[in-house]
Write a structure and sequence with these properties.
Strand content: under 5%
Largest sheet: none
Number of strands: 0
Oligomer: single chain
Helix content: 55-70%
Mean pLDDT: 91
Structural class: mainly alpha
Length: 85
């Protein structure tokens, strides 16, 4: 499997939607230094680390955390583009 792709079932659509909302709250925050933006970023990062540790690393050791992190951010951007208010 190419390193830039995620295997099916690693993350659900609902999880992508939840992550995208967190991503939106910090990445596109009016004030990226606000407490709300910092909390959203912290929650996003914590979720990514948990998904990686529980779902990716044990089954797909060739996928690095950096690759996984970047791929999740790409999925979040795509979700936000498709579901813009």
């Amino acid at each position: 499997m190419p390193e830039h792709e995620l295997p099916e079932g690693i993350i659900t659509r609902d999880e992508v939607a939840e992550l995208a909302l967190l991503f939106d709250r910090y990445e596109f925050a009016f004030d990226p230094r606000s407490i709300a933006a910092k909390e959203a970023e912290s929650d996003f990062e914590e979720s990514i680390r948990l998904f990686f540790a529980e779902r990716v690393q044990p089954r797909f050791p060739s996928i690095s955390f950096v690759t996984f992190h970047c791929r999740i951010k790409s999925l979040c951007r795509a979700y936000l583009r498709k579901n813009a208010p």
